[in-house]
C-alpha cells in the first residue's frame, strides 16, 4: 500500500515546499522550485519525482501549476556552482525560487538536511521530504521537469554529450564524451577536476 504524503507540517500555516534537481550532474545548472499548495489539496499520484516516470512527472506538472496557490522555479548556473560549490548553489537557487513567489509563505519545508535561513521566514529541513510532504514532492516535480527541459535544449547546442538522455548526470557515455571531446562551456569545472583527480588516483 502506498504511503500517503502529508499536505502540511503545521495546520493553518502557509507553507512552501522547496526542492532542487541537478546536484549530482557534471554539467548545467541546479534548478530549484518552491510550491505553495492549497488547503485540501489531494493527489494520489504525486510523489518524490525520482519515484515517478518521465511521463508521470510531465503529466503532473501542469496540474501543479494550475492548482498551486503559488509556485516559482529558479536556477544557479554552472559558473555559480564552481564559484560557491554545489550545496551553496542549491540553497541559492531555492532562495531565488522563494523570492519569486507572489504569495509570501509563513514557513519553508526544505528537502534535505542543510539550508541557510531565508530572511524573515522560518524553515524546517526534512530528510527525504519529497517522499513525505506533498508541497516538497510538487517542488521536486517542477524542478526536475524544468531542468530536463533546459538540458534537452542545451543538447541541441552540444549534442556530443547526450544530454537529451543523461541530462548532464555522470553516466558512462557522458564521461566517455568528456574524455573524447573535452568539456563544453556548460560543464561544471569543479566537478570535472574532481573526476580528473579520481581518474589519477585510479591510474596510480
Polypeptide structure, described:
- It is a single chain.
- The protein has one domain (15-203): Ribonuclease H-like superfamily/Ribonuclease H (Nucleotidyltransferase, domain 5), CATH 3.30.420.10.
- A hairpin with an 8-residue loop joins strand 1 and strand 2.
- Mean pLDDT is 93; it is low at 199-204.
- The chain is 44% helix and 15% strand.
- The protein is globular and about 55 Å long.
- With 204 residues, the chain is an alpha/beta fold.
SS strand fraction: 15-25%
Spatial arrangement of strands, main beta sheet: 3-2-1-4-5
Strands, total number: 5
Terminal CA distance: 49 Å
Q: What structural class should be given to the helix and strand makeup?
A: alpha/beta
CATH topology type: Nucleotidyltransferase, domain 5
Query: Which CATH top level class fits?
Result: Alpha Beta
Radius of gyration, CA atoms, in whole angstroms: 18 Å
Sheet with the most strands, sense and barrel status = 5 strands, mixed
Provide mean pLDDT, rounded.
Answer: 93
- Poorly predicted ranges: 199-204
Number of domains: 1
Per DSSP, the total helix count is 7
- The CATH architecture would be 2-Layer Sandwich
Order of helices and strands: EEHEHHEEHHHH
Percent helix, as a range, is 40-55%
The backbone outline, from C-alpha atoms, is globular
The CATH homologous superfamily name equals: Ribonuclease H-like superfamily/Ribonuclease H
